[in-house]
Specification:
alpha+beta; 2 strands; 39% helix
């Protein structure tokens, strides 16, 4: 399972806590409100490359 996390306009230790919930550093996005759409575009692009298996 892959978990993405996005911290929007967050500062301090909360950013670290949110980041630790992600599967890896590459699955964590720290963004401003203006950058939020770009983060979701990046996540959507990554998800397109996933392959579902049973």
């Amino acid at each position: 399972m892959i978990v993405y996390t996005v911290a929007v306009d967050v500062a301090g230790s909360t950013v670290d806590e949110i980041g630790e919930c992600a599967s890896s550093v590459g699955h964590f996005f720290e963004v401003t409100t203006e950058e939020l759409a770009d983060a979701f575009v990046s996540i959507a692009s990554s998800i397109q490359h996933l392959r579902l298996i049973q």
